[in-house]
Amino acid sequence: MQARFARGIAQTPLTVAAREYPLAEEAAMPEVGDLVTVYSQDLETEFNIRLNAVAGPGLWYGVIYAINRGAEMLVVAEGLELDDVVSVRRQEIAAVIRADHPSH
Questions:
Q1: Which is deepest, 16, 66, 70, 88, by most CB within 10 Å?
Q2: Sign (positive/negative) of CA torsion 71, 74, 77, 80?
Q3: Secondary structure of the chain: what % helix, strand, coil (to 5)?
Q4: 66 with 82: CB under 8 angstroms?
Q5: pTM, entire model
Q6: 67-94 as b/e, with b when 16 or more CB fall inside 10 Å?
């Protein structure tokens, strides 16, 4: 998972190592508007991200909606904050909560 903006003096994007999950069936592919869950590599931190754009095959942009560590709700974790814009790869998505999409 990578932040899509420059941070700090170095002005380089921030990357958070996310746990990878094997590709699931096609039905599990997220769509814009869905809420997805991404876990940090150590599985301690959970990021809930609302997808708002397709960035490429198996890649989306989204906004961090919630950050949790256990029962604790956080504003900042691993250098990322609520409302930060990030890119998320399909392999990093652990769970998908569907938005109400029109039938295809």
A1: 88
A2: positive
A3: 5, 50, 45
A4: yes
A5: 0.83
A6: beeeeeebeebbebebebebbbbbebbe
